[in-house]
Fold each of these.
Amino acid sequence: MSQLRLNPLTGRWVVIAVDRAARPGDLISPHLPVEADPDRPCPFCPGNEEATPPALETYGKQGQWVVRIVPNRYPAFDGDEPLQVHNLGPVFTQADGSGIHEILVFSPEHGAGWADLDDAQAAVTMAAIRDRLEDHARRSSIRYTQVIVNHGREAGASLVHPHGQLLGIPFVPGEIAEEEAGFRRFEGSCLLCTTLEAEEAADHRIVHADERVIVVCPFWSGTPYETLVLPRNHDVHLTDAAPADVAATGRALRTALARLRGCLGDVAYNVVFHTAPHRHSGPFHWHVHVVPRVTSLAGFEQGTGVMIDIVAPELAARHLRVVG
């Protein structure tokens, strides 16, 4: 029998329907090629720096960069203007898409991914993310910055070379507003601090744990092999966290993605960093979601917003631990 499980971060129900996993073709095979013309020069590879706008930040030594941040040549958000809402009619409301859209090239290696980063590369990548968030937070027109990594065509990637994106936007998006509401609804201590303690006590959804970070397939997983990366120390903003915790989160994310690849192959996935909106004081606890793209959203999910997970998170965590 299927189960309904409540995601306390968003207040949404998800469905755990493991019997549906027996249907042929429900789990998608490793992702299709990303680029239409893989033989064209990669704009993110060393030696092709002129193919991108000038770098905003470069990390590395002796003239060899290991991380670059460049403006997105095709920005979804651009401009310094604060959000100005215009009512064009009784049901027509619009605003200019001002903001920031940057590319985080987190490895000079074309065929690498976050799963391939060594400890030092994971740490410098996370330091770059922290630095850019601090820069965005100083701009009064930017209310929230979303950090993402899209891997594979099904997850929205358009280039193979490992990279992420930072999108500074002039409003707080609904997903973050819902998570903030989830923290406020939770009575007692922090929702995710309590989640961390409860998952360790249960001890059958843990994928990775060390002295600074825990990775779990959360009880309320809405998609197969979904994971949640939780720093142990309670910080509202990623930029509030100690450098050691920021670096450890990058390493734990690397471990989670390497185990995902070892378990399912090179599947597409999205990595989503959630931190409190700029200048918000909480309650919140910054964290990272990993959402593999191994099933398709059908009409029920799109019509109701209720996700159906055909692999119980307890089983998914067991699979991910075995390949570690």
Amino acid sequence: MKLAIIIPARIKSKRFHGKPLKKILGIPMVIRVAQICEKVTSKKNIFIATDAKKIALVVKKNRFNVLMTSPKCLTGTDRVAEAANKIKADVYINVQGDEPLISAQDIKKIIKAKIKNKNHIICGYTKINKIEDPVKRSIPKVVMNQKNELLYISRALIPGSKKVPLKTYNKQVCIYAFNKKELDSFKKLKRKSDLEKIEDIEILRFFELGKKILMIKTNTNSIAVDYPEDIKKVEKELLTNDKKIRKRSRKIL
């Protein structure tokens, strides 16, 4: 089964301009994400899809593949769908360039789930961690049925409660798996669906197209970078994780 990992990256983010090139512990964020993907598959199967020459130059300097895409792409998944027209693969993995804390194991779980569930869109999710505020509108919350199929995803606090807020909520982790037909149907609409517009969550377009979305629990507490202040949170988490790894290594020795 041929695999392609595509990382969409645009420079003109409304909330955080130039986000993909912002450095996290000295490494541009989009390159840090690509390096994680390199633990899953070889560089020849990893592509950064962008409309910005600045990003393309950094990607080439770090010897990753770059695909130039239209600046008119409505979402990251539209960009992935456009890039997929230039790459032949059985499974396309969309890894968002603003998820620098995802693990290679998480990506592998998504790939395995897609191979096993060919008729489902696959998307990651995890519990909202202690350092995040579930009320925050930048965090898409997910609700699933007993089969772990997506019922709804919202920036609002869901599921709601008449009495008191829940102790834990689940959030989306932006690792997706598609086949070519699914990506073509997404882009073919040529507009954002009604719910997608309201929530500003692109996976809702698949939802409204009648596609089943299977949610896969990831192991790590990923923190998406939506605002400049999120960089410090991610760096702190990386340094904490590094200390934990060193302690384990010392115990083994």
Amino acid sequence: MAEINRAYAELRAGWLAGTATDEAGNGRRHWPPEPRPTRPVTGRVDTTATFRPRNTTTGPRAQPAGQPPLRADRLQREPLRASQPTGPLNRRRQRNFRPPPPPSLAEARAYEIVFGKFHGHTLGQIADFEPTYIDWLARTISRDPDLVAAARVVQDDLDVRGIVRQPRPSPV
């Protein structure tokens, strides 16, 4: 940028030293010279394919006049999404929804952690080494319901065995 500014200053000094006149011949110096007028750059977007008149049928076939509208089959609806723009889908509100049963203690202790300081360790190994981390997993993690279910099973086992865990101090 410094080189560009230096070159501009040199060009300007050279231009001012010369005798430049404007179109009227007044001997006035102009720098930088006025740009030539150009046509404005505009673009046009064809939106005719997105236009739909109001109150028209959007289905694949139009309904004859005087007939009641067709009822959509319940099975052809859009499948449920994992989440909505406003938050996660609450499956408990669905009719006949039953959450999967919790894993057995052996399955829960064999569950492998794929993140954090215990990456690659199983919940059983973590429970034997640092049981407070199991409490943290069961209380904090929300993105992996299988991990939370397994951590709660291991947590219940720790409670049954009477393993005392020191609560973590809360940040103030």
